[in-house]
Amino acid sequence: MHVKVENAVKDYGSSRVLDIESIEFKKGIYVILGSNGSGKSTLISCIAGLNELNSGNIFYDGKKMDFAIRNSICIQVQKPYLFNKSSYENIVSGLKFRKSSREEIETRYNKYKDYFEIEELLSKKSWWLSGGERAKIALLRTAVLETEMTLLDEPTAAMDIESSMRAENLIKDMAKDNRTVILVTHDVYQAKRIANHVIFMDKGRIIEMGSMEHVLNNPTNKLVKQILNI
Ligand SMILES: Nc1ncnc2c1ncn2[C@@H]1O[C@H](COP(=O)(O)OP(=O)(O)OP(=O)(O)O)[C@@H](O)[C@H]1O
């Protein structure tokens, strides 16, 4: 899906939290980095249609948001809510909500369940899971939907190193077949490992963007240079 954000402004009271002239997302993994409060979550929640811009436009393959587009986008928010059901029920809950057939649910579940070692978690009610365990179940619930565009807000923040690596493999697979992933993270190393494109934000604005390779080799912004340790 080709998403174009134009002249996007979002204000909360008198404070402007998003002020973006233009940005486009096509296929691959786009990683958004930036300090706390720089507008990363606001941007992706506006793209997902969870939040409204005060002014500006977002076009999806040249069109405005509608029901079909909404169904081809999935956002995993920073603190995903899990139902107080088994981990299995949580993983397939989005598919059930979208009225997938029983066969489809089983096929998708089996396709994704081994990205993490979740055997022990399956019988547990989600409310008893640790933070990292919940993060794995949430990411699987997002992955099984196989949406054309997936927006992820710090999905690995609570995971241990090995689990983060597994999650990164899953995220790479979410961007296969010309699909798009937009990942918000504070982990520059993670960005270096998996990003095709990188966007740096500061105070609601984009201060640097481009292919990962280009930005790594030719950062122009002083803050970006510092973050990348260049
Ligand atoms: N509903 C709201 N009402 C008022 N201010 C808000 C609201 N939601 C977000 N903000 C403010 O908007 C700014 C941008 O927030 P946002 O969550 O997009 O930042 P972020 O870059 O994702 O930060 P972090 O890295 O800490 O997750 C922050 O200053 C935040 O306090």
Structure write-up:
By secondary structure, the chain is of the alpha/beta class. It has one domain (3-228): Rossmann fold. It contains 9 helices and 9 strands. The protein has helices at residues 40-47, 67-71, 87-97, 102-112, 131-143, 161-174, 188-194, 212-217, 222-227; strands spanning 3-12, 15-25, 28-34, 55-60, 73-76, 149-153, 180-184, 197-202, 205-211. A 6-stranded mixed sheet has the order 5-6-7-3-8-9, with helices on both faces. A 3-stranded antiparallel sheet has the order 2-1-4, covered by helices on one side. Helix 6 (161-174) links the parallel strand 6 and strand 7 (180-184). Helix 3 runs parallel beside helix 5. The longest helix has 14 residues, at 161-174. It is globular, with a radius of gyration of 18 Å. 37% of the residues are buried. The model has no long low-confidence stretch (mean pLDDT 96). The structure holds adenosine-5'-triphosphate.
User: What composes the largest sheet?
Assistant: 6 strands, mixed
SS-based class: alpha/beta
Strand order, main sheet: write it out: 5-6-7-3-8-9
CATH level 1 name: Alpha Beta
CATH superfamily: P-loop containing nucleotide triphosphate hydrolases
Number of strands: 9
Helices, by number, come to 9
User: What would you report as the Rg, rounded to the nearest angstrom?
Assistant: 18 Å
Helix residue percentage: 25-40%
Mean pLDDT: 96
Shape: globular
Précis, in short:
The protein has helices spanning 40-47, 67-71, 87-97, 102-112, 131-143, 161-174, 188-194, 212-217, 222-227; strands spanning 3-12, 15-25, 28-34, 55-60, 73-76, 149-153, 180-184, 197-202, 205-211. The protein is α/β, with parallel strands linked by helices and 230 residues long.
